[in-house]
Amino acid sequence: MSRQTTKTVFLEKAGYRKRRLRDAAKLVPFLGIVLLAIPLAWSGAAPHESIGSSGLLYVFGVWLLLIVLAAMLSIWVRSDPDIDGQDRDAK
Amino acid sequence: MMSFNALIVVALGYVVFLFGIAFFAERRAARGHSNWLSSPWIYTLSLSIYCTAWTFYGAVGYAARSGLEFVTIYLGPTLVMVGWWWVVRRLVRIGRAQRITSIADLVSSRFGKSTQLGMIVTVISVIAGTPYIALQLQSVTLSFAVFAQIEGVSWDQPDFNVTAMWVAIGLAVFTVIFGTRNLDANERHHGVVIAIAVEAIVKLFALVAVGVFVVWGIAGGPGEMLTRIDNSDIELWNNDSGRWISLIFLSGAAFLCLPRMFQVLVVENADERHLHVASWAFPLYLFMMSLFVMPIAVIGLDLMPQGSNPDLFVVTVPLSQGQGGLAVLSFLGGFSSATSMVIVATIALATMVSNHIVVPVWLSFQANQHAVMSGDVRNVILLSRRLSVAGIMVLGFLYYRISGGGTALAAIGLISFTGAVQILPAMIAGMFWRGATGVGAAAGLLTGLAIWMWTLFLPSFGVDAVISQFVLENGPLGLSWLRPQALFGVAGLDPLVHGIMWSMLLNATMLIICSLVTFPAPLERLQGAQFVNVFEHSSAAPAWTGAATGAEDLLIMSQRILGSTEAQALFEQEAVRQGKVGYLPEVTPDFIERLERELAGSVGAATAHAMIGQLIGGSSVSVEDLIAVADEAAQILEYSNRLEAKSKEQEQTARALRAANDKLTALSIQKDAFLSQISHELRTPMTSIRSFSDILRDGEMGEEGHERYAGIIHDEAVRLTRLLDDLLDLSVLENGQVVLHEQTGQLSDLLDRAMRAAGLHDGVLKVSRERVDEDITLTADLDRLAQVFINLISNARKYCDAAEPHLRISVVKDKHGYAVDFVDNGSGIAPENQDLIFEKFSRVADGSKAGGAGLGLAICREIMHRLGGEVVYLQGQDGAAFRVRLPKVKKTAALEQT
After folding, report:
1. Tens of pLDDT along B17-33?
2. Phi, psi dihedral angles at B778 (to 5 degrees)
């Protein structure tokens, strides 16, 4: 079904910021995937050396980083009252 | 030390407490005080049923056996929730828009409300979910046994079985009471949700308490703890990177596909905005749950005797340190994890079994007798749901009994995940790809199910249990490429990674290929568009056309499903919306659509569709209707575009009219001014002519005076004549009666002639010219053109107000051709007058000085118009500036010249 609304191509500054925040929120999982793929290199690099507790700290550190990022972004994005109105051109 | 009986009392007390909380929440919700029940925090906590007893007890065991790999089970859901903008948000929106009751309903609804697809998904979910329920029963009984052992009682198999049975019965009762109380799955199960939330807090608190005790109480602080981890026998990082990635993927996918997770994530979601909080709070919960897993595992391995079960470290480590209270708390945590998972999983599975298997089968038996009209559907559905709860619990218990509750069960967790994840391709394709068809989805699901059964599920019962050692090593019937753990000859992989890879790969491939080659039914296409574009249009295209049934029949049927109060309220509301009085609204396609969606919230989309179809004679949507709907929308769009264009055009016209009106008003004022001017102009010479001719008639003067007076009379008459000539000239030009005499000549000659005629001999006005540029041959009515030049030059002579008047005449060439500019160094013409100077009778400067009637420029303009050129006022120069655009040189004429 065709859309009837004509989209606004440019937004005012505040709307633009929100849009970019949402982009950032969408990128967080990819950041997570990249950071969590790093342990894959450990086994190849040092097959006989145990990575030990530093590996544990790394994984939990990345985990915490993702949580903090998600929390900050969700709080910033949430202050957008028209969050669903702009969905039309979010894609 | 706490006795076993005391433990039973504590457990029962906890259960009573949960019942109480659930009752309290239901009562509050029934009175309408459900605000705090639907807060984002309760929602987040309810998601925690992801952490089952398998993770509560099993994570420590997993860590003790495989090191860091246990976190993958939590990292997958973390990534999914952190990336909620991609899938979860869409899933929740679709769930709310389509009133989805379960994951089977989602798939069925997306692919044309297909009953068969609903059945397939339900079967997969039940097969994959049953072992998991058995696993929960096992962990609860095992933890009971730990406490029994302390009293010196060693449990035999029958003791385990009896305990498991009582746990199963208790859970079934709770689920039936709170989980199948109301029919509408979209009305949230407040009691259940709040009980789960409380249990979530209990299990987190218990695990953190044990963890704090282990780190600070036994190890002596985080630093010492890390050293002990480094020194322990556990290999933190094993070298299998395939498992790391596969398990992160598997857990993330299972988080979306497990029926119980779908239930809390989508169906019980009260408000989409709760996702904002859950997106980080739920990962934080998982983080807290796994933070102390490694320390507990390490300390457990250090402290406990060789050969003790690491799965139970959470309970046995505190017990071995004499912390009975902590052990009981930990036991309650595990108990909470098990019960909350079983309750929600059972509700979700029972809804699916009832909506997608029992009711459709029951309906098909009664189809001829108009089942929807007779018999109380509502009770049938509720009953079938309760029986399903009991049935699933029985299945879980049986599985527990048959598998023997041994280590074989422990391995089933991830295999069960893999089974549930077979729904993922159909679900994701359904949400993002309009081209996915029901046939494709079914093919993918069945392929995935078959491969999962063959590579993972059947071998999980142990060697020679279902699949013999021979088949495992050589393939069935000697077909070696069908070996369960080395399909197509891909050997050497971890069996789980092997199973995940092949099942997902072939599942997705079948889905894509079959979708590409089949053609979807109209209803499928309609639903596909609504799912994929769920954020674009909230209102649906009607799926029903022309209804041949009465509103009364529909009301009777709805009452049987929704209950009479709700159904009547719905119908009345619709009637009011349509502006009618009473309970029976007009049966519009729109209304049927909404009614169907309401019913779908109770019995699932496929059943609701079938029931309405029975009543209104199956006049569902056809391809033609779809096209018609699309056409209609296109027409509306075109119409509105046309309206917009028209209104824009009208606006332009109005603007032009306003401008014209302004100009006319100005002209009218000018004309009035001119009339008084012209009468004055005509009157002045006439007056002097009359008075001097009076004097002459009286004849009382000498020869000299006579001659002087006659001269004056003559001059005045000439002036009058010139004025009248101008008026006449203009009128001729304007009426187009002028005859042009074409001649050919040089522009420089023409300008010389004009300067001579303009009366510059007094030498006041200096003129500068660029004679080189003026070497242009013209073919036009040169006399008329000269008239224009003369007028412009004499205007400069008359009106230029500079101390040393100077006129610059220059020739310019641009893409339109040649033009001659006349620019003086006076003060120019004010912008507001620039529009008017070319109008007749307009005079900007004081008229008496010039002695003209303001016709000169009007005549110039008319002449240039006739000649095919133009004269315009040139803005932005030092003084008054006019540009005469010369008539285009005709090609033929130009050729003759060269």
Report:
1. 888 888 888 888 777 76
2. -115, 145
The H or E element spanning position B807 is strand B806-814
Q: Does B256 touch chain A (CB under 8 A)?
A: no
Q: Name the packing angle between helices B274-291 and B72-82 (round to 10°).
A: 160
Indicate yes or no: CB of A84 within 8 angstroms of CB of B283.
Answer: no
Q: Are strands B777-780 and B881-885 parallel, antiparallel or unpaired?
A: unpaired
Pairing state of beta strands B806-814 and B766-769? parallel
Residues B328-345: b if buried by 16+ CB within 10 A, e if exposed: bbbbbbbbbbbbbbbbbb
> pLDDT higher for B897 or B322?
B322
φ/ψ of B408, rounded to 5, equals -55, -35
Among B71, B287, B533, beta carbon nearest to A64: B287
Q: Is B79's Cβ below 8 Å from some Cβ in A?
A: yes
pLDDT band at B37 (very low <50, low <70, confident <90, very high): low
Alpha carbons within 13 angstroms on the beta-carbon side of residue B432 total: 12
Mutate to test the interface with B, among A48, A74, A82 (most CBs of B within 10 A): A74
Beta bridge partners of B766: B806
Report the percentage of chain B scoring pLDDT > 70: 89
Which residues does residue B779 pair with via DSSP β-bridges, in sequence order?
B744
A28 touches chain B (CB under 8 A): yes
The single-letter code of the amino acid at B615 is: L
CA dihedral B750, B751, B755, B757 (to 10 degrees): 20
B847 band by pLDDT with thresholds 50, 70 and 90:
very low
**Is the Cβ pair A40, B68 closer than 8 Å?**
no
**Alpha-helical segments (H) within A38-51:** 39-45
Report how far residue B376's alpha carbon sits from residue B564's, in angstroms, rounded to the nearest whole number.
11
Tokens of B173: 């009762």
Interatomic CA distance for residues B480 and B487, integer angstroms: 8
Rounded mean pLDDT, B227-247: 79
Q: Give the containing element (helix H, strand E) for B819.
A: strand B817-824
Q: Which residues of A touch B230 (CB under 8 A)?
A: 50, 52-53
For residue range B663-674, list pLDDT tens digits in order: 899 888 877 877
Nearest to A56 among B82, B229, B633 (CB): B229
Cα separation, B476 vs B487, whole angstroms: 11
Record: contact B82-A28, CB cut-off 8 A: yes
CA–CA dist B569, B583 (Å, integer): 8
Q: pTM of the predicted model, to two decimals? A: 0.71
User: For B181, which DSSP code?
Assistant: S
Question: CB count, 10 Å around CB of B550?
Answer: 13
Amino acid at B539: S
First to last CA, chain B: 126
Whole-angstrom distance, CA of residue B650 vs CA of residue B638: 18
> Do residues B547 and B619 make contact, with C-beta atoms less than 8 angstroms apart?
yes
User: Residue B262: its pLDDT value, please?
Assistant: 92
Question: Locate tokens 């989409």: which residue?
Answer: B272
Backbone angles phi, psi at B679, to 5 degrees: -65, -35
Instruction: Report CB contact under 8 Å: A4, B640.
Output: yes
Give yes or no for A21 touching B (CB within 8 A): no
* Residue B226 contacts A where some CB pair is shorter than 8 Å: yes
